[in-house]
Every structure is written in C-alpha cells, then in structure tokens.
Amino acid sequence: MIFNKDTAEKTAELLLQINAIKLNPGNPFTWASGWKSPIYCDNRLILSFPAIRNYVRDEFAKNIEKQFGKPDVIAGVATGAIGIGMLVAESLGLPFVYVRPEAKKHGRLNQVEGFLQKGQNVVVVEDLISTGNSSLLAVEALRAAGANIKGMAAIFTYGFDVADQNFKNANIDLLTLSNYQNLLNLAVAKKYITEKEEQTLREWNVSPSTWNV
C-alpha cells in the first residue's frame, strides 16, 4: 500500500527523471533471478541527487511517524537501503542499525550491525520490494535480535501478488512511497512509454517469472 497518491506520483516522476527506473519493453533486462523484465529499478541513484534524496528522506520521516508512530530505531536493509535509512534516522533523531543478508563469518558474527536493545520498536527501511524475500529475511534477523517490528517502509514496490502474500504471512505492514501502478500511470501521462508498451509492462507484472518477449 502506498502512503498517499500525491507522494506516489511525485516519487515515480523523480525516479524516471534520474533513470533510477528504466522502462525498456522492447529490450528487456535480465534480473539476478534469471527473470526477464521490461523494467529495471536502481534506487541507489537517489543518493547522488541531493534535492531528490532530501525529498525521499522527508517523505519517509513524515509518513513513518504518521503511520507507525515514532519508533525507537530505524533499520536499513543492506546494501541498498543503508544510505537512505540513515538519512531517515537522522531526520527523526533516532538511532540507526542495518541488517546484512547473512551473519558475518568472522569477528562478532553480526547480522544486525549497530546498537539494538531487546524490546525496542523498529521500523525497517527498504529501497525496493520485488518478491519481498530478502526484505523479510532482514525482519527475521531483527526479530531474532529481540526487536519489535512496527512495519516496513520502502521507496518502490513492483506490486507482485507473491510479495503481498509473503508480507501477510510474516504479519508485516508494508507501506511504500510509490508503486508499479502509479509508475505506469505517470509514464503514460508523461509519454515516457506508449500505450502499447504500457500493455506489455502490465502483462509482465501479472506473471513476471514466466513472462517472455
């Protein structure tokens, strides 16, 4: 679910402007999973544009507090959400931790990096949601460390049914600045794509694991 429609439209436009989201139905990308995709999203680019990263930071900070209440800690999911998560924590005047994909093999063997006390309320910040699996592994690690997860806030979600089910099964509320539906609506309105390309993008979203050109 998006925080609100105005933010969703504005965020989508900004991501398209800086090519954080690229739409290429005629020459699809290949994801690490092997899926063919007419869209590629790299929200790390946001950090290179001060005005846009400040907008994302401020929208996160405002809406996290409104929707989840002010938590004790902000947690970023490594590596894509470390930078923006830290900015959000700074804006809210809160401690920050980040979660590795797996525990380190040496030293203190940490998976959660930073100071986190058992029982603290945590909101997790993520840059992108596809199936939700990697994001929810971070939630599991935080819960194992004793955290109380208030919810997750992400910049963008592809809106896959499998992700919705995964978050429901994990009993985690997910709210995003923007999503696939708002992105396509904006892309058509601003003529980033044609109506024919929009149809291709919508077909992909229904069954991304089996879609082909």
From TrEMBL:
Residues 59-156 form the Phosphoribosyltransferase domain. It comes from the Bacteria. Orotate binds at residue 130. Its EC number is 2.4.2.10. Keywords: Glycosyltransferase, Magnesium, Pyrimidine biosynthesis, Transferase. Pathway: Pyrimidine metabolism; UMP biosynthesis via de novo pathway; UMP from orotate: step 1/2. The keyword Signal does not apply. It catalyses: orotidine 5'-phosphate + diphosphate = orotate + 5-phospho-alpha-D-ribose 1-diphosphate. It is an enzyme of class 2 (transferase). One of its GO terms (biological process) is pyrimidine nucleobase biosynthetic process. The keyword Glycosyltransferase applies. One of its GO terms (molecular function) is orotate phosphoribosyltransferase activity. SUPFAM superfamilies: PRTase-like. NCBIfam families: pyrE. Homodimer. Belongs to the purine/pyrimidine phosphoribosyltransferase family. PyrE subfamily. This is Orotate phosphoribosyltransferase.
